[in-house]
């Protein structure tokens, strides 16, 4: 008899190798999960550079035969496969799976176009290679046919050489596996048990009795299994059942496990691919709901569900069915999971407005929880906006990414600028892509900052960022971890059930007032400024259009009907582009270009709407020689602006008079006339051409390369690099630029972060300051008094 004394390291590795998918699979237990396999009866393919519908692809006459080992691509190509399956008679009564690995994402369809399940290939912990054809093969139903849509990209795009690099446009994808196989559920269950026992051995404290009990139980199971004798499995299962049957005490912490598949609406892939990611992920989620009635799945982002409704209507109907059953749970209340800092306050309100309207219309409910697990900080405006929109709960985990200071709470009351407060929960596991591993369960408790204050914590499980969602293996692990001594309870739950418990314990919680600042990814405030500029222009244009049309409609409803649907469509496009990897500038170039094109279209359309409303209010101004221009101020306060008058230079010499505008408020330039106009709140100012007036602006070169500028307000001196050496307000003696110092200094810094190059600007960049220019003024011509 072998010694009962066990070396923990060697025993643990023995168990791990016994269930390894890589090592010794010809003699270990993992290699027996699929004891028999058979090639597909036939496999044919049709490829296209476009993303086409099932109807179009299924009717193509030009499919060609293919097989395992063939390569497909390049990146973003779509390949449609027809597969024919004939299950052998000897497999009757056995569970049969399709096994598929195309090193890419794929979606399985029935022959009538019903999306069944997503398939994720490649070597990754997020793989999903199998689909259950039948749980018990029957002699009356052994022939099957399917379609598979293969997207030539990985779950995380096609970046090379790193994940966040630009996509490799020439990348090819190999069909590594395409067959059917008998699935041994009992073997797979024991593999899961041994994996969990090994994880408990490793993750529980070194001096934990339960850790050693797990090790000895696992070792005993390995000893009693003969991989070539299925009758040995019963004794092994009995050992596992005894161990996992030992329950917790009443005081044990409870983990609310909630399925999700956080899908970035664009990131390392464009919007068009996200639409297919949604179909793959949601179809997989619904299939699990059929098998596991207790399984729940939380889904945010109304935009993604709207896409599914439009492109996959039968799938959307099934989503609505499971939503009524309480398994598919809409959360978040927003149009997308937007950036939490860059959108305007009005945009943040519209995110909730259109999100809540969609969820109420399609699912009969408004969301109570703001669900934003992955953005780069959270504005102090949000609690007030959330409360106004009927949302009183908030979930994230992103502040766990802080570079310097650990955020002090996982459960707290978050207070906004006006005193509004919401109940906040940060998942202590610090992820939204958990796999229900023992390490995640242990971390949820050991990392919890509010020990003794709360009895429950959330664990969000399911592959995320690129989608995918929960797997059957995760749910098997949850079943074993539901109530086992040595670990917190892990129960399948819902957001509402969790927050209801947290609300009952909220008297114990601390308060946090103001912004939730992320100490990382600060370059997202400036990266790809054009995207941010277009967003702000769209926000302003939409606000102006709504104000102008409201006035026009109020004055003449028959002449100027309010274009509500068009404006809502424009708003939804802008809200889409506020997604937390698009507006910050952290997506690939293709996604960024898509967003900029969409916003440019919005600006054009909104401009047309505003022009139409203004014409109805003031008439047309087609004739430049009419001499009248109207400047409309849509803001609720008086506004002073410098505007450029769109008259040609010949006209400028004839007239430049503005009703109610001071003579010194105009200046002629090479590009036109700049005019200073003050318009009343929510009003307008008329420009009429009658006569010209002079404005004095002084420009003097006091020394080679040194310029003195003066108008009626200020006087400044600039050197040859356009740096300001002196600035004074006329009528006063105070010098605003300190002696021996310069203002308006243009400098550059090295910008090389640790990894996230589009996201981060590190503090050490301040040590690399260099002048950006040496000299910009080389030959200065001037006049002492220049008049316009």
> Which fold name corresponds to the CATH topology of the domain at 262-432 and 490-519?
7-stranded beta/alpha barrel
- The poorly predicted ranges are 652-664, 690-695, 780-788
Helix proportion of residues, in percent? 25-40%
Largest sheet properties: 6 strands, antiparallel
- The quaternary structure here is single chain
The chain-level structural class is alpha+beta
- Morphology: globular
Number of strands: 35
Annotation field: number of helices: 17
Q: Judging by the overall fold, what is the CATH architecture of the domain at 262-432 and 490-519? A: Alpha-Beta Barrel
Q: What share of the residues does DSSP label as strand, in percent?
A: 15-25%
What would the average pLDDT be, to the nearest integer? Answer: 92
Reading off the top of the CATH hierarchy, the class of the domain at 262-432 and 490-519 is best stated as Alpha Beta
Strand order of the largest sheet: 3-2-5-10-7-8
Distance between the termini: 106 Å
Radius of gyration: 33 Å
CATH homologous superfamily (4th level) name of the domain at 262-432 and 490-519: Glycoside hydrolase 38, N terminal domain
